[in-house]
Amino acid sequence: MSKPTATPGLFRLTWPILIETLLHVGTGTVSTLMVSRLSDQAVGALGVANQLLAMAITLFQVVAIGSVVVVGQRLGAGDRAAVQRAATVALAINALLGLVVGLVLAGMAPSLLAWMNLPTAMQPEAGLYLRVVGAGIVTEALMLSLSAILRAHGHARDGMVVTFGVNVLVMLGNALLIFGLAGLPKLGVLGAALSTLGGRAAGLIALYWLFRRRLGFAPSRRYIESDWRNHLARILAIGLPAAGEMLSWSGMFALVTSFTARLGHTALVAQSYTLQIVWLMVTFVQALGAATEIITAHLVGAGNLNEAYRQLLRSLRLGLGVTLLLAGLVTIGGRTFIGWFSQDGEVIDLAGHVLALSLLLETGRVFNMIVIGALRAAGDARFPFHMGLVSMWGIAVPLAWLFGLKLGWGLVGIWLALAADEWIRGLTMLARWRSRAWVGKALVHGQG
To answer: Which of 66, 72, 218, 410 is the most exposed place for a label (fewest CB within 10 A)?
Structure first.
């Protein structure tokens, strides 16, 4: 066993993850702006298709999240050989899973969109986008694994640089293919799909090159021939409950979106635009949560449990402070922000009312985005999953139906239901961390 790897600092991890996340979200926002020049209907169609793609990508998070924790704890304990074996298993499993999911998305696109209650007029464009991007989703699966392993080693800036390059390619492709610039055919939504696929393929090549350069080895059968089941079991012990919790949220939100679709075209488009701003707003907390998870895994692997406990509380205070500031700005300027996307007065008015709830919704979300990652990193992945099932399906869904449809509060009522779920889950997660019930659940045990 070699010397334990030094635990990376919070700032060193957070800022490149933040920029990478902003670039990811920014690409979606810019693409939405470009597609909005075609029609609001096209935006709504892509919004629903992207929700299905996000649900599929959550499956790949089973391996990506599990590998961050396993590799991080092994690095903290100084077991380099186990790191190489776990990384190879993670890449192999996500490659296989990506191919299978791609076939399902490409072959079942119309049925999936019908299940989402997407209006018939929007289905052709959404189906085209889903088939093209879904068919190549294996690139996203492999990029997630490569980026996760690099982050666990402290190389968070690599993912940031690659994502920037992917964004440039996607935006350039959008400009050329959506609108038919430089003599190319005007492909509309198909152009957005092709540029997304091409950008991801280029990103995969770049990440794999960085993986080999930074870590000094190439994935090979010799790393998994004797012990792959053990490493897969450890990855899944963390990844399955984590992805189950995220899939539960994605499924819940998909069902809630079907409630929104029943409210009509205006509500569906307003939600699509609102989400673009919300995701931009929460990127700092998302990056802070990812960085805290990596640090916690290193500290737990090294046996430094008291420092892991204190680090989570420091991260949580920072996340709440920043979120209060950003949510206040969004509450004040919501209608102005929506006006960047749409000229429809009804859409702007409704989205503005929903954004005013961000101060309530996003402060509750902070607890879940930061504490859940730390619990996973400590090996306590099942509790967030079980609590998520209870809260999402026992609170968010019935309240969304009650407030949004039954009582007639519309999209505002649906978002109030989502806020209730975030706060109840979040405070429960904090109580779990403070109880130290996660102590002793680590996959490896250091000497701290």
So the answer is: 218
Q: Note whether 270 and 261 are within 8 A (CB).
A: no
List pLDDT tens digits, range 1-20. Answer: 455 566 777 888 888 888 88
Closest CA to 133 of 90, 64, 192, 221: 192
SS3 339: helix
Torsion-angle region of residue 8: left (phi > 0), alpha (psi -120 to 50) or beta? beta
Q: What are the structure tokens assigned to 289, written together? A: 């949560």
The per-residue pLDDT of the chain, averaged, comes to 84
Alpha helices per DSSP H over 116-188: 123-135, 138-152, 156-179
What distances in angstroms separate CA 286 from CA 81, 265, 344, one per listed residue?
30, 30, 31
pLDDT at 43 over 80: no
Quick one: tokens of 134? 């879904």
- pLDDT tier at 203, thresholds 50, 70, 90: very high
pLDDT at 448: 42
Residue 439: helix, strand or coil by DSSP?
coil
